[in-house]
């Protein structure tokens, strides 16, 4: 794991804008980015709307929040959280410099 980066994850303007669209008709909820054991490559991303906890890192932009728990933070050091909308589907994506390989679906990775 490339913890030498020791940088917080970065969230693109496009990801914050999409989160604002999702939250437009309801009370705003943060987007949680977590790393869990499992998946076809060893680790998998868990991306969902969730309330922030006191110990979470909170990244803010466009009136929205993205939260990362302290256990997941080292796995996401220097990562970029984005939103893509392509013919094959629309989703939040993570470009993670700590991942040595990932699966084709983009939700599972190894270090």
UniProtKB/TrEMBL annotation:
One of its GO terms (molecular function) is 2 iron, 2 sulfur cluster binding. It comes from the Bacteria. Pfam families: Fe-S_biosyn. One of its GO terms (biological process) is iron-sulfur cluster assembly. Residues 10-106 form the Core domain. NCBIfam families: iron-sulfur cluster assembly accessory protein. This is Iron-sulfur cluster assembly accessory protein. It comes from Paracoccus sulfuroxidans.
